[in-house]
Amino acid sequence: MVQIAATRTAAAQPINTRLLSLAALAVVIAVLPLALTNNFYLDIAILAGFNAIVCVGLNLLIGYAGQISLGHAGFFGIGAYASGILVTTYGWPPIAALLVGALFVGVLAFLLAKPILRLKGHYLAMATLGIGIIVSIVLRTETGLTGGPDGMMVDSFKIFGLELYGEKTWYWVVGVMLFIAVWLSLNLIDSPVGRALRAVHGSEVAAEVVGVDTTRYKVMVFVVSAVFASVAGSLFAHYTGLITPAKADFFKSIELVTMVVFGGMASTFGAVIGAVVLTVLPQALTVFQDYSQIVLGAILMFTMVFMPKGLLPTIEGLIAQRRRA
Amino acid sequence: MFAEFLQYMLSGLTIGAIYALAGLGFSIIYNASHVINFAQGEFIMIGGMAAATLTASGVPLPLAILMGCGGAMIVGVLVAKFTVERARNASVVTLIIITIGASIFLRGVAELVWGKDFKRLEAFSGETPINILGASMQPQSLWVIGCAAVLIVAIGTFFNRTLTGKAMLATSHNRLAAQLVGINVKRVVLISFALSAALGAMGGAVVAPITFSYTEMGIMLGLKGFTAAVLGGLGNGPGAVAGGLIVGVAEALGAGYISSAYKDAVAFVIILLVLLFMPSGLFGKRGTERV
């Protein structure tokens, strides 16, 4: 394995910082319910958690491998509908449906990845956007299977005779899943794979020249991020009990990418923070009623103009600056 | 049989002309600034909504269209000035999100000003269908195709014959060199946004009698315009026009012969197939990356 010294310094964190931040995440997840006094707040936290799981995966692709995807909601949607259709229509056990959905998405992403990841920049954006839109159109049109634009009801998640029911239970399920997602992501980033990925992001040609099999790593990350999205989609379907094609459409994809970039590219916790802020924000913006769209658009534009690196890296930069001063 | 085919071709060319205008808008802005402007569809919407609401309140149609174009140009310049220009060195994803933010913002403002419901604009010269070899065509389709053709020729002349146009082409070839010979590249970016906005708004106004005007009309039109631009090779103006017509015709044929439910998917299936086999679009140059 080739070591790329220049990229090591960029994001490689010492192991103890990693453990520390994981512990911090665990504490936040454990303590948060004390502040979430009613089911409405819990519900928002759960939705933020689902988004965060997808964003942690997507961040590996965007932030570390430097590849854009404007179609990840498509994978989320496939996961959700795989669970919906297999469990509710065909009576499969939920865990089996979840795994089959994830496997299907993994294989699909693998087959698509090779030709697609040859594309650069805007062409890649176009291709992934196309995949996402096609998935959402199929979900909307195949009414017999998916219930069409109105969506379909999904049975609750049962495992070992236990039924996951209510916001309190789901909060812990999502919390644990998010913790696992972050842990996997941090491990991946600190492994040789992560170093190779950062090399790809820095300069793909240079990475190839020193012997990194860039295509293999890009494909791998694309598959991993798609599977994260699929699993989150499956669980989401069981939690809400109603899924619609809107969960897989272009806007959902954009929302996910925005969360990653807003929170801070190439930062796992940035992705989590981005997901949480942008899930809570539209709820908070409802006080603006008719103006909520305008305010949301303006916030997106101006945070990206003034903090192109995203929220967390900008704050970290400010803290580092103050320390030096 | 043939009449049916002709019917699909005509409706495909009509909507394709709008995609071509949108695609051209994407290309012009991309050339000047390397930004994919996801607010392009909102320029179309502004044109369509302005024409429909202004004529409804008694403004003569030509003036309403011009006001729509003017309004869109101002909006375009503001978007360029306050967001894109300030984020010059941001990454591709960041710039995409900025323009998407702009499009959400503009749709929000439009909803506030014009409301959410569909607005109807009278066809420019009646609705008596014209019979062409057994296929019937709305007179408005002729307006759409005619206006698009005139605009495309005008844009071509502008880029090849005027000093400003040539300066814009020079900027797209080599920004730094253009700057060195005294071209004001910041102005070039602003002009590119104004031009694209005018093209989009004009397209929106002429197509409004066929599609109705509503604040979300620009979403799909804009995405298809992006498809057209990529199909023709990003930054290739004539390519974008050809791409738009191809997408429009393929969509109409797909809706007619295969499935009308999957009409919107046709454009994206085509672009995926093309990108898989020709990663730089149909007419794009093969690029090499410098290290």
Give an overview of the whole structure.
The complex is a heterodimer of chains A (325) and B (291). With 325 residues, chain A is mainly alpha-helical. Chain A has one domain (5-250). Chain A is globular and about 55 Å long. Chain A contains 15 helices and four strands. Chain B is an all-alpha fold and 291 residues long. Chain B has a single domain (12-121, 137-261), classed as ABC transporter involved in vitamin B12 uptake, BtuC (Orthogonal Bundle), CATH 1.10.3470.10. Helix content of chain B is 74%, strand content 2%. Chain B is built from eleven helices and two strands. Chain B has helices at 2-33, 40-56, 61-84, 92-114, 139-161, 163-173, 175-180, 185-211, 217-231, 237-258, 263-277, and strands at residues 130-132, 135-137. Chain B has a two-stranded antiparallel ribbon. In chain B, helix 1 runs antiparallel to helix 8 (185-211). The radius of gyration of chain B is 19 Å and the shape is globular. The interface between A and B is large, with 50 and 49 residues.
Quick summary:
Chain A is mainly alpha-helical and 325 residues long.
Number of helices of chain A: 15
Spatial ordering of strands, largest sheet of chain B: 1-2
CATH architecture descriptor of chain B: Orthogonal Bundle
Please tell me how large the radius of gyration of chain A is. 20 Å
Rg measurement of chain B, Å:
19 Å
Shape of chain B: globular
Helix and strand pattern of chain A:
HHHHHHHEEEHHHHEHHHH
User: What is the global morphology of chain A?
Assistant: globular
Instruction: Report the sheet with the most strands of chain A, covering strand number, pairing sense and barrel closure.
Output: 2 strands, antiparallel
